[in-house]
Amino acid sequence: MTTDNQTPFISLSSSAAKRVAWLAEQEGNPGLMLRITVSGGGCSGFQYGFSFDSSVNEDDKTFQKDGTKAVIDEMSLDLLDGSEIDFVEDLMGASFRITNPNATASCGCGTSFAI
Predict the structure, then answer these.
(1) Which of 68, 85, 81 is nearest to 11 (CA)?
(2) How many distinct structural domains can be found in the chain?
(3) What pTM value is reported for the model?
(4) Partners of 88 in beta bridges
(5) Half-sphere exposure (CA, 13 Å, Cβ side) for 11?
């Protein structure tokens, strides 16, 4: 988490930025942003959510990498502060993954976490 004089942040890896740009292009809207949310649930208490959005709400913060934007609401950002969003392709499949330094535990699939 941040101290009073630091602004919460997340970072996008180059791989995540490229994948978001490619997916937005496939949707026919290169201006789409990756929306990342945190909600209660999952096997560890909180779960990550990914979607596309074309608008920024009043309580959203945006982060950019290589011209690609991610948008996160302030409540989710508090739980994701310092995280890196990556896109990984391996034998198990392809997915966005979050490395969250605030998580004290996570599930095997990587979509839920505890603080």
Answers:
(1) 85
(2) 1
(3) 0.81
(4) 95
(5) 7
